[in-house]
Every structure is written in C-alpha cells, then in structure tokens.
Specification:
The structure is a single chain. The chain is of the alpha/beta class. The chain has a single domain (21-48, 58-165), classed as 3-Layer(aba) Sandwich (Rossmann fold). 41% of the residues lie in helices and 21% in strands. The protein has 7 helices and 7 strands; from the N terminus they run H-E-H-E-E-E-H-H-E-H-E-H-H-E. Strand 2 and strand 3 form a beta hairpin. Helix 4 packs parallel to helix 5 (113-128), helix 5 (113-128) packs parallel to helix 7 and helix 6 runs antiparallel to helix 7. It is globular and about 55 Å long. 28% of the residues are buried.
Length: 174
C-alpha cells in the first residue's frame, strides 16, 4: 500500500528526521504509517552488503529494516508457543537486534502483563543499544505513560524525535 511513500510527500520540517528514531502520533488516518514507511524506504538505501571476490554480494545481518504492527508482533510470538519455527527469545532478539525497526500501531492492543513485558524488553534493549526505531501510535507519549507504562514512554522519548500529525482522516472521502 505504501510502496511509493517518500519523504517529499511531507513538509521539509518532517524530512529532517531521516537518520533518527522517530515517534509519530496522531489521529486515525493522519498519515502516520505513510510517513513511517517513507522513513523506512529512506533507510533501505543504506542497507549494507558484504562483497567478496567471486562471491555473490549478500546482505549484512540486521541492516535490512523491519516493519511490524504491534498486533502482528504478539501474534508471531504466540505462534512460538504453539510450536512455531522460532522461539519467543528468537523473535524478540530479531526485533531488538535489527538496526532499523518500524513498530506500527503502538498502543492499540489490550495491554496485559505479558504484552507490557514484551514491549518493555524490546524498547529497553533498543534504547540501550542505540538502535534506530520508528514508532507510530494513536496515543501521545503522555497517554502511553498513563495508560501503558511510564518507563517505556520515557525510553521512547529518549530515543526518538516526536512528531504529531494532525488533520482529517485521509482515508475517508469527503
């Protein structure tokens, strides 16, 4: 859906955030995912390849950006409990070790002790390792702090520039 998303679709003020972690929040349909994917596409131009003479170039581990929605992340982890191909630890490591992670729809899930722990592990590890993270949410950092976890909100604030997108729902034809 966002294959053609690009930073030039947004104001020059927003374009300054390429290369940094970003927390994008705003109402439904305000363009959060569009902007996040534009940032991810920009990152794709910086993917690293290992080149050896006589050998096909191959991607260097963890340099390809990953896009995941929070509900899909939890679904993937729950599949591990049902005998999936990866263990819970392998899945969490995949999302904590990648150089660029886009976490879409943060805060839409019903928060449980388990989901809060998963969020805390991933955000805390990425914060400590200075990994570039782009997060979209319908919630502000204050709402995340109040409704979900103040430690996670503080870490997000520490590792991301904050962008609020406003305006009408772009998906609804008026």
């Amino acid at each position: 859906m966002f294959i053609d998303a690009k930073l030039s679709d947004f104001s020059t003020a927003v374009q300054q955030y390429k290369g940094k972690g970003v927390f994008i929040w705003g109402g439904v349909g305000s363009g959060k995912t569009h902007l996040a994917v534009a940032l991810m596409r920009e990152q794709l131009s910086q993917v690293m390849y290992e080149v050896s003479e006589g050998i096909q170039p191959r991607l260097i581990k963890n340099t390809v950006p990953i896009f995941i929605t929070i509900p899909d992340l939890y679904f993937e982890i729950k599949q591990a409990y049902r005998g999936g191909a990866e263990t819970e630890a392998e899945i969490i490591n995949k999302y904590t070790e990648v150089d660029f992670l886009l976490m879409d729809d943060y805060g839409v899930e019903k928060v449980t002790e388990w989901s809060g722990q998963i969020q805390n592990i991933i955000i805390d590890r990425r914060y400590r390792e200075l990994k570039k993270t782009v997060i979209t949410s319908n919630l502000s950092l204050d709402q995340i702090s109040h409704n979900l976890d103040d430690r996670v909100a503080s870490r997000i604030a520490g590792m991301c520039e904050v962008i609020e997108l406003t305006g009408k729902d772009r998906r609804i034809k008026r």
